[in-house]
Amino acid sequence: MAQLLIDLVKSFDGLSLKPYRYPAVFRTIGYGHTGFDVCENMQISKD
């Protein structure tokens, strides 16, 4: 069940390996991870 929910969230949000602003205040990276810990220069991998 948990993996089904994770896959559902991934299908709606998509993957971003570099941060982007969403909606306008917080940066977002990965599959919808937002917060003050996401920096402009940050980059992640799929692993």
TrEMBL record:
A Pfam family that this protein carries is Phage_lysozyme
Q: Which InterPro entries does the record match to this protein? A: Glyco_hydro_24, Lysozyme-like_dom_sf, Lysozyme_dom_sf
Q: EC number(s) of the enzyme? A: 3.2.1.17
Q: Which GO terms describe its biological process?
A: cell wall macromolecule catabolic process; defense response to bacterium; killing of cells of another organism; peptidoglycan catabolic process
Q: Which UniProt keywords apply?
A: Antimicrobial, Bacteriolytic enzyme, Glycosidase, Hydrolase
Enumerate the catalysed reactions: Hydrolysis of (1->4)-beta-linkages between N-acetylmuramic acid and N-acetyl-D-glucosamine residues in a peptidoglycan and between N-acetyl-D-glucosamine residues in chitodextrins
> Tell me, what is one Gene Ontology molecular-function annotation carried by this entry?
lysozyme activity
- Give a yes or no for keyword Hydrolase in this entry: yes
Q: Domain of life of the organism in this record?
A: Bacteria
Keyword Secreted in the entry? The reply is: no
Q: Which family does it belong to?
A: Belongs to the glycosyl hydrolase 24 family.
The entry's protein name is Lysozyme
Q: What is the lineage of its organism?
A: Bacteria, Pseudomonadati, Pseudomonadota, Alphaproteobacteria, Hyphomicrobiales
